Hints:
The chain is mostly helical. It has helices at about 5-30, 35-55, 60-85, 95-100, 105-125, 130-135, 140-170, 190-205, 210-215, 220-230, 235-240, 245-250.
Amino acid sequence: MNGPAFAVNLAASAGAALAVMLATFAVALVRGVHRIVDVAWGLAFTAVALVTWTLSAGYGDDTRRLAVALATCLWGLRLAVHIARRGRGHGEDPRYARMLARAPGRPALYALRKVYLLQGALVWLVSLPVQAAAYLPEGVDVLLVAGLVLWAVGLTFEAVGDHQLARFKADPAHRGRVMDQGLWSWTRHPNYFGDFLVWWGLYLTACADWTAAALTLVSPLVMSGLLIWGSGKRLLDAHMADRPGWSAYAARTSGFFPRPPRRAADRTEPL
């Protein structure tokens, strides 16, 4: 891996993530709704992947560069489109409304620091394997193939779970009910679990080089922490806790890693 070229890429990718977040912040101020930052999350990863693919030309293996860039862009764009469709016609996300209501000083500047700049930094950190993989000279190997297979399983799991939930919520008869069908009967968070697989898969694509593997391990670890203990599973479970039927659903359904629904008598809570 070419160290100086990779260092330039790290700086350029940080600039790309920052540019997406600042542009989104400007749009949010005009529209008066900060929930659009969730759309920018996937777009920022896409921007980083495209910048990396462009700058890594002549340094890394072309097949690996293209495969990792396409995988990241497909994941990021699908997520952005899904979130944009889901939020169409809705007002502010309750999470951001509560946060800004407690904000010290000017709420807009608080949102800039605590949401946009923080998410931009996380995009840069989590995308390290995507950047490193593009600078590896190794061609197609078992780790690249395994990583892409894991990525594909994760993307499929995430997309199917999102589709099942959207179809469930579109039926007026399900209003106020807890989604417990399809993948949602095996895990309470198939979309988060899919993200988990996607980023461990992308990490594997950078593991042909031991230095790159060691330097980028922080990426899937941070994403796993966010999904399980940070802004993912933990917060959504707390938000849903008072909904009718949630307790019974949580008692029989895995909190994260998929498994068949548990018998009602067994209430041990695994991930």
